[in-house]
Each structure stands twice: as C-alpha cells, then as structure tokens.
Amino acid sequence: MFDEAGEDELLLAAMMQLGARGGSIGAAAGGAATGTHGLGRAGARGGARGAARGFTWTKKDVSTTVVELSGTVTAVSRLVHAAMAGAGDLVGAEARDDGSIAVRAMVGVGMGGLNPTVVTAVVAAGPEDVAVVELRAAGREGLIKRHPADHALAKITGRLTAASQ
What we know:
Shape: elongated
Number of domains: 2
CATH class of the largest domain: Alpha Beta
Strand order of the largest sheet: 1-5-4-3-2
C-alpha cells in the first residue's frame, strides 16, 4: 500500500544518493588537487550523512490534482504507467481491492532534475467509460520555495494529456 510514510522514505533515500554522488565527486577532486587519492568513498559517506541531516530541516511540499481520461481503468493505467516511466523512475504498481490501480514513480524536477519528487497515481473507474486519475506529488523544499510537487504534477499531466489525444 502506498502511504505517506513510504513517500518520506523514498525521498530520504533519493536525497542520500544525490548527497553521496556529490560528496564522492568533491572528495575525488579535492584528493586529486592535494595528491591524496582514494577519498571518494569517504566523501560519499559524508555526503549521504549530510543529505540525511539536511532532509530533517526541509519541509514537505505536497500537491494533488485529478485528471479524467476516456477509456477503461486498464487502458488508462497503461497510459499512466507509460507517462510516469517516461518522466521518471517507476517505483512500483499495485492493484487495489476496490478495482483501482496505483502507480508510483520518482520524478526529478528543477535544474537538471536534481530535486526528487514522489508521484503517486491512482486510476479508478469513473462515470460512463471514463477513468479518473488522482495524482499526488510530494517533494522537499529548502529555504527558497520552488514547489517541486507542482512541477512534477505539471510534467505528468502534460504527458498524460498528450498521450491521450
């Protein structure tokens, strides 16, 4: 079951990966400049720890929207799956007891796609051959408010509307 606690875990893991990558690059560059090679692993550990600490100081940004698309739940869920895979990395999909289908992906937004955002889409049956797609995006914001959740939803809804036409 996709839940809010799972969003936080995914966001923390993504931020730690980015911190580790940056720390490794910085330590390797610093080691090369000083003649001390092999600092990449230590830099990666430090970068990941720094990202985890910084994660606690940031605020969660959440945005939701609803999109109605013509077709069956199965057909629209395939469309949603393809749109989310094209915009980011799929995390998982599940069929729910009520007949709806949920898909979750990590979508990078911002400069270079370096701000990870978790997007969850739930596809349910609507009235008369219409499927309702409920989208929820969650990301983290620092001191400068960039609204990553809004940007991620715009990315996904743009792909959905383009693919449905």
